[in-house]
């Protein structure tokens, strides 16, 4: 069996980027000899998963892969340059270290002198005390000596503080210089992988090799850019790709998938759930317990999580492909890869839900004409005036409607007032709760505006799930009557506001419950 003495380059030709890893494909043409031959290919990323290595040979004559494995080795750091050829950074480090040593010696001398002056001042004060006790009154000499000692101590203190300040500056400069020298000159040891391939061919000649494996430290997330220009909207779909696999992906075919290979495991073990029936007590049969609760309407996709979210694909694996070859450096930074773009007519609406927010927001609705599903992700919003902010695009199947909020309108204001009254009927003992909601809408227009603007107001009405509680809309008390009320109890008004106009919308509904209902 022959062995190649020199590694053969094995470039990356195609990458399938998953949610938290990547499937890398490599291709090369080998010039093989007849018989069994061991090849060394690479270098490749040391993060390649061994058990996912798969090699295939393609040739006109019989060729077989006998064994494929990955070997890893540490590449030591290069030797340091000679003293005569030191770089400017290394000379600067030597200069700073020499100056710091001189200053430290100077600081030690100043500290010793300050200690000596402190002992001299103590001896002088003791001499003054003894002389005063013996009847001596040489005040002028004592004052002169004390002033001289205090002056020298103050001078030493100022010089010591200046030395300490300079030492702190030198320590910071030395740290920065050493870090720069470490990045520029000292290369850390690197873990490098090589592919050991054993093949057998019947005839010598060129043979195509295709090798694939999984690798970690690679992921992608969708990103969008929506440009609103008059009555049309252009939606660009991009992919943000990060990878730090230890090698660059240069001019590769990039495929983006939402498949989760980590979920291909055993299903969880099922536990036992026991259901028991018990008779209700007399008090429980006489009452019906109800409560008012907030109910979120379910949508497709996983529940939101804190941190970097997963790819919301609507529960079905999606595959997107880059239309052109791309290059993604292995620097761990985000790289934007264009995927698709389309332009369509946009339907705009000025909407407000005062119970949730007093702001009037411009909402744009389009149909998904990208030819593929739009995965949930951030979207950069651009209007005629420029960048308007960043929003979130929810999952949308091909052809499904898409909603984008292009920010609030500062020239509108909505104030919400709510009142509630409770009454009990004398004969039936039914509890009747009447709620009145008033929405005050105003528009502050700039000079020159003459067109009316339609604002869509939405206010919700509770929906009962039990027959003992009835909810009725009092249309005679509403001003004006809602244009529509959907199955979820959302009342909608389309209010036309002229420049500087004001409108008040009133909604009234009754919540009626029988005497045996508790919890309201």
Structure write-up:
With 520 residues, this protein is α+β, with helices and mostly antiparallel strands. It folds into four domains: 2-77 and 189-215; 88-185, Helix Hairpins, CATH 1.10.287; 218-261 and 313-408, no CATH class; 412-518, no CATH class. The chain is built from three helices and 28 strands. The protein has helices at 88-134, 139-185, 282-286; strands at 2-3, 12-17, 22-32, 35-44, 54-58, 63-75, 190-201, 205-215, 218-229, 232-243, 249-257, 288-289, 319-321, 326-328, 335-345, 347-352, 361-367, 377-383, 386-393, 401-408, 412-424, 431-443, 453-460, 469-473, 484-485, 490-497, 502-513, 517-518. The strands form six sheets. Strands 2, 3, 5, 8, 11, 13 and 14 form a seven-stranded mixed beta sheet that branches. Strand 18 (377-383) and strand 19 (386-393) form a beta hairpin. Helix 1 packs antiparallel against helix 2. The longest helix is centred in the first third of the chain and has 47 residues, at 88-134. The radius of gyration is 40 Å and the shape is flat. Residues 304-308 have low confidence and may be disordered.
